[in-house]
Amino acid sequence: MNPRALMLEKAARPLYWIMLAAALWVLLRGHNAPGGGFVGGLIALAATAAYAIVFGAAAARRRLPLGPLPLAALGVALALFSGLPALWWERPYLSHLWFSLPLGFTDLKLSTVLLFDAGVFGAVWGALAGYVLALLRSVEAAAAEGPP
Amino acid sequence: MTTASPHSEPSRSSYLWVALLPLAGFIGLVWGLLQHPLPWRGAWPWVPVLGVEFSVYIDGFAAQFLALIAGIGALVVVYASAYLAHEPARGRLFLILIAFMVAMAGAVSADHLLLVFVCWELTSLTSFLLVGFHHEDERARASARQALLVTLSGGLALLAAFILLADMAQSYSLRAIVERGPTLVGDPRLPAALALLFAGCFTKSAQFPFHFWLPGAMSAPTPVSAYLHSATMVNLGVYLLARLDPAFNELWLWERTLLGVGTLTAVWGAVQSLRERDLKLILAWSTVSALGTLTLLIGLPNPGAGLAVATFLFAHALYKAPLFFVAGNIDHATGTRVIDRLTGLRRAMPWTSAAALLAGLSMAGLPLSFGFVAKDLISSAKADAEVLAWVSYATLFVNAAAAAVAGVAAIRIFGGGTAEPQDHVREAPWRMVLPPLLIALVGLEFEFLPNLADPLLAEAARSISPGLDGTEIMAPYGSGAAVVAAEITFLVGVVLFLAWDRLHDLLQRVHWLDHLGPAAFYERALGAVAVAAAWQTRLLQHGRLAAYLRSSLLGLLLLAAGASLASGARDWIELTASLFAAWPERGWLWLAAAALIAVGAAAGLLLRDRMALLMSSGLVGYGSAALFLFTGAPDLAFTQFAVETALVVVAASLLPRYGPPPAIEGEPRALNALVALACGAGTLALLAQLFALPADRTLADWFGAASVPQAHGRNVVNVIIVDFRALDTLGEIAVVLFSFIAALPLLGALARRPSAPP
Which of A94, A18, A13, A101 minimizes the C-alpha distance to A60? Predict the structure, then answer.
């Protein structure tokens, strides 16, 4: 590791978690304020990429909740699934349903929309992180063989 | 073909039980015919938004087809269960066979044209899978592709014909179109509709010049050939033509096309059948000939022709299917289908020989057979219609050739002495002997017990020829002229049969027939497609990034120019003024963002270092994001910021390891500059035009109003993405996932070749 990257190295780990938290926050607020699954997924991708620059593609891959392909597939599956409950109430596929869960101090609003947006998040994060990590791995391998 | 020995019974499942499905259908049909008078009808909503319904109309003609589909289908499955006993993948064949039966039954019972079309195409698709069943054989693959290309292109023409017809008749109901047919005669679109209809029906029913796929389709397993290519699918085109005949019977175009094409096909098929040595191909060509005869009969203007069509269709299926089975049995037992090597098989294969004899009797049109009745009706139909002399001579030749083919299949192979010992030849197992015998016997029985066949055939004939009256159709056959005609035909047939080998040698020498046929044209056309594809790939997919960009931009420019021209001439000064008239309140913020973009673009032009180029492209991106922000699209701006950040971070992690940028050579820099400037100017012009148009805010207002009450979200953009247009988003993320899956092998290859410059 380049000694000049010491700052980067020290900052990378907390930065990763902060960026992920921001991504999640953007995902959750998306329905009422700028944000949503796509933007959230991109921020999470940036977090993964930054982590990979410092610690390498393999380490960044280990930090992902799932492998890139399973993550992306889970995302699409979530989005697909989020349209199903509507069929039970004889509404068209992907008609979104809302539930209110009273918690005493506030009402927790749950919806299949959130499920759908989380699916978008996972698909974007997983697939794009898969691209980035694979490309990084190839240049790392080239660097390990000798100076370019 | 199969090399399995017929001696050992299969140990694993033979799939014989599959025959219960079509058998149940057949029993249900017979029961229904006894209980309820025809026609049966039903309709269920299918795509109510478009007014498409799943409507079914079964009259006598459809019932006749259903009986053939289910009855012969059951026996085909029985036969195949033994024929394919040693085929490991036979489960697949039975599955496709049943799917084909369902599609076929749907095609003949459907009343809504789109339902007819869907079932029609399904039969083409399943037929493709069946013809290509031995997919490890290259010839089978080529035949399957040929059948698919020919029948599917015909299917597309048919769809166009259906849409035109429905548009003219104001109804998608087949029956309604037939009823309103005469009123359509004056419509200028009718000739086009009929030409398309002919293309669809002629490809499906192997009429000249589309007939060549049918003999090719003989690479299918024999039970499939017996079923699809004699008794069912190929008759579908004839079915539709016969269905529509009452509507267009009087038309000169209709009558002459059917007569001409039918006659040509019948004669061509008969000639080709005399040229072949392979029993299965002989039968295939004689099927082409029979289909031509059917088309010709439909073209005859008098109502009696309807009866001839229904009867000949039935008779043909009832003799051609057994003969195909016989060919399969012989192939199975001796390993060859070349008629020169086959003789004296009656001792070794008595039951098969009996089936061949019974079916051959009918095919030759000898008295005491169903085929005789059919031939008789055909000649009386033609006599009534006073057809042109050449059609009569043609049918005489065609019938004689059919008699000769029957002689080859029934007598030549089984009769005579045996040249070599036939110890290894054994009779086929019962499941391969029963179906041909049974079907051939049914064919005979209809002759002896006419009251079994008469009602159904009369009902069927009345469906095609509403003018037909009386039910005692079959009783008075054997009029003097018809018997004489039959005798002449038969005598000529005997001559053809006896002179078969000499005739064959003669015809074999006529090589130009091979190069002239449409099959050769098909080959050339297929080759031309490959050449054109290679040419345009070399032209467009050259692998140079800058050139890709240039052609994309030029294409965009052309589109923009086309749009400008299409919207008519405009006063450019006024347009430019209108652009500035839209100057917003905080316009200087827009200017600042635009300046950011301009600086980024200029830096990109001047700089050569990769990292600096990356930064300048990031500047352009951030500039656009800022512009979005100031123009009231915070969501878009947010997304743009995130995209740019991710791109810069990712590219920055990759770039340093690629070394210095390679020199770009051979790029026409002046041209590139010109294209870039033109694109900028074109975009500006397009925007100016857009601003001059009145803005339609219907959708924007609706989404803005509906967002909170209907979707519980204040961020309209997000609500549109995840709720109102959620299906689109689903498609998009699926594309993201699939693009990644598709790229995985490439990425893997990159990782495996680390030393090569990526």
Answer: A13
Name the phi and psi angles at B53, rounded to 5.
-125, 155
- Helix ranges, B631-668 (H): 634-654
Contact B497, B403 (CB under 8 A): yes
| Judgement on whether residues B489 and B572 belong to the same structural domain of the protein | no
Domain count of the fold of chain B: 3
| Chain centroid, CA B18 distance in Å | 26
Q: Do B733 and A75 touch (CB under 8 A)?
A: yes
Segments forming the whole domain that contains residue B750:
698-758
* Cross-chain residue pair B730–A75, CB shorter than 8 Å: no
Place of tokens 């459907």: B110
Q: Where are the alpha helices (DSSP H) in B655-725?
A: 669-692, 698-711, 716-719
Are residues B721 and A76, on separate chains, in Cβ contact within 8 Å?
A: no
Given its phi and psi angles, is residue A56 left (phi above 0), alpha (psi -120 to 50 degrees) or beta? left
Q: Are B356 and B409 in contact (CB under 8 A)?
A: yes
Q: Which residues of B426-443 are buried (b: 16+ CB within 10 A; e: fewer)?
A: ebbbebbbbbbbbbbbbb
Query: Which tens digit of pLDDT belongs to each residue from B686-737?
Result: 777 777 777 778 888 888 888 888 877 788 888 888 888 889 999 999 999 9
Six token digits for residue B116: 């007819």
Cα–Cα distance measured from residue B314 to residue B60, given in angstroms and rounded to the nearest whole number: 13
Nearest to A120 among B637, B639, B733 (CB): B733
Residues B752 and B631 in one domain: no
**How many residues in total does chain B contain?**
758
Pick from B484, B510, B536: which residue ends a domain? Answer: B510
A142 vs B751: CA distance, rounded Å? 9
Domain count, chain A: 1
Using a CB-CB cut-off of 8 Å, the residues of chain B touching A79 are 726, 729-730, 733
Q: Do B553 and B499 belong together in one domain? A: no
CA-derived radius of gyration, chain B: 34
* DSSP H stretches of helix in B449-479: 450-464
Q: Are residues B757 and B691 in the same domain?
A: no
Q: Both B665 and B719 in a single domain? A: no
Residues of B in contact with A32 (CB under 8 A): 713-715
| Pairwise CB contact (< 8 Å): B653 & A79 | no
Which two tokens mark B429? 């197992």
B9 occurs within a structural domain: no
The reply to whether B206 and B331 lie within a common domain is yes
Cβ contacts (< 8 Å) between B733 and chain A: which residues?
Answer: 75-76, 79, 119-120, 123-124
The per-residue pLDDT for range B28-82, each reduced to its tens digit, is: 888 888 888 877 888 888 877 777 888 888 888 888 889 889 989 999 998 888 8
CA A117, chain centre distance (Å): 11
Q: Domain check: are B339 and B222 in the same one?
A: yes
| Cβ within 8 Å of B, A 53-112 | 53, 68-69, 72-73, 75-76, 79-80, 83, 93-94, 96, 98, 109, 111
* Separation between Cα atoms, residue B79 and residue A99, nearest integer Å: 60
Q: Collect all residues with Cβ–Cβ distance below 8 Å to B638 and sequence separation of at least 6.
A: A34, A35, A39, B625
Neighbours of B540 (CB within 10 A): 10
CA of residue B392 relative to chain centroid, distance: 34
Residue A117 structural domain: 3-145
ipTM: 0.90
Task: Examine residue B498 and state whether it is found in any structural domain, yes or no.
Answer: yes
Instruction: Render pLDDT for B165-174 as a digit per residue (tens, 0 to 9).
Output: 998 888 888 8
Lookup: tokens for B415: 């009769």
User: B134 and B257, same structural domain?
Assistant: yes
Helix (H, G, I), strand (E, B) or coil at B749: helix
Q: Nearest CA of chain A to the CA of B105: how many Å? A: 31
Amino acid at B574: E
Cα-Cα-Cα-Cα dihedral of B520, B525, B528, B533, to 10°?
-140
Q: Tell me, what amino acid is at B454? A: D
